[in-house]
């Protein structure tokens, strides 16, 4: 391990904010020192409570995250936030607005906020988020909130890493926007109708009740009684109840042996995501332009090409 | 090749709708006969014009697709539509509504509409879409429209397969929802402000003008003069101008040698996506529970685990 990585790992384990930020940047940039730090800190991880906050655009997720941070701080817990942001530079205004709203925590060493954008590849965001959560874990944070827009496979992959997933919806969004994917619906542990002071609250509440009813029919073995709460995150209303529900879910996870089981699932997901990236890099390097040219010229079809490359990589070592 | 696959390939090449539908279902289901069909038809592909239609939720993409189909049919072109639908069963109503709206083309053999949902894995949607586009290509369709919600990495991967990408926005959506990712913004070849009869059109138009100005600064070498059009897709207004712009873009692509170049890029993307899936399946089968257990128990970190597996698969055959 390089001296720089060893130094960052030691400072990060002592809880130093700047060292944590450096490690996350290295990991996000795929700097090899990031992997070195991660190897060093990994034995010290496994305690943090990973809480996902997701929902359709406009559901007030960042305001809700802000409220949850404030409530947890009032209870003496330290909180890290990973704001997964699939938006473009063109939305700088909105993002800046969100981050400014979070600024009331800026001087609190018990709060650490980090935004991660989508990477150029499917699965890249998932890897960066996993890695950042491990860094916060090693730094000793009690909770990490992963805040993400609930649209797209990449976001579902991110939700898969949470112990507890909070799904926020709001009154008055159209069906198309309100749409919560089946995968997310099944992943939700706590549901919140945010902006509950708005017109249409009753209808939104009924819609969610119906969805949860359908879910209960689809998942008859689910033992956790999924709560449906109301909030006005902008004024802090409902925050205590949401935290109670999240903490209750964690207690339930531990009693049911689910905390460890979800950790193991996460380990598998994370190895798979990393393996993915490793293999793609190696495979594309080995593919070469000749095969691509043959496919482009219609001399070879893409399915056969992919199978040939995969076979050349794996079969001689591992005969079936 | 199995007799069933040979039969479907032959009927598909003769333009038979039912055979095309069967091939797409096999490919989407990862039925091995799908790959057999694809190998047989691949030499007959490479002519279709792949047009992506994307934008934020609520931008009226399916109405716009419907309008483009009608306009192309009026010009004597055959059109296939791949509606990429990352939504859940819970939005069944909305989707049904869209498809019913498309029903006016249902009896027209020159139109073929197929919806594809997200697969369980990142990248899976991209593969299914590529495959379906090849089937339509072999069936002799002139154009295939790939309609997708412009959010999420998976959708960007889908857009990457288009020769021409149309990006739709609408007046009056909030900043967060209006957000078009940088990747999509750069991928756009034709921009449309849809629902142009709504309040806020002028502001939306100005916002897009500004974005296109920023884009021109960021991409000084881009030679195609990106048009910004207006439409009221529900009434068909603006359809002819959009088709003119798309056809103009295709002519420009061919003149500039870009049609072949984008085809080659697509070949690379497609092989990479398929290789991805092949390798993940093989690698996870070889990973085994022991490595996952070691990672879950903190005896091995995930980065090292992934590198070790990748190395065991590839390095003995291909020493660096």
Summarize the structure.
The structure is a homodimer of 320-residue chains. With 320 residues, the first copy, chain A, is α/β, with parallel strands linked by helices. The first copy, chain A, is 55% helix and 13% strand.
Description:
The structure is a homodimer of 320-residue chains. With 320 residues, the first copy, chain A, is of the alpha/beta class. The first copy, chain A, folds into three domains: 1-43, no CATH class; 45-256, 3-Layer(aba) Sandwich (Rossmann fold); 258-320, no CATH class. In chain A, 55% of the residues lie in helices and 13% in strands. Chain A has 13 helices and seven strands. The first copy, chain A, has a seven-stranded parallel sheet with strand order 3-2-4-1-5-6-7, with helices on both faces. In chain A, helix 5 links the parallel strand 2 and strand 3. In chain A, helix 4 packs across helix 11 (239-255). The model of chain A is unreliable at 87-98 and 316-320 (pLDDT under 50). Chains A and B meet through helix 3, helix 6, helix 7, helix 8 and helix 9 of A and helix 3, helix 6, helix 7, helix 8 and helix 9 of B.
List the topology elements:
Two copies of one chain form a homodimer.
Chain A: H1 3-13, H2 17-28, H3 32-41, E1 49-55, H4 61-74, E2 79-85, H5 92-101, E3 111-117, H6 124-139, E4 143-149, H7 153-159, E5 164-169, H8 175-178, H9 182-187, E6 190-193, H10 201-218, E7 228-230, H11 239-255, H12 258-296, H13 302-314
Parallel strand pairs in A: 1-4, 1-5, 2-3, 2-4, 5-6, 6-7
Helix pairs in contact in A: 1-2, 1-3, 2-3, 2-6, 4-11, 6-7, 6-12, 12-13
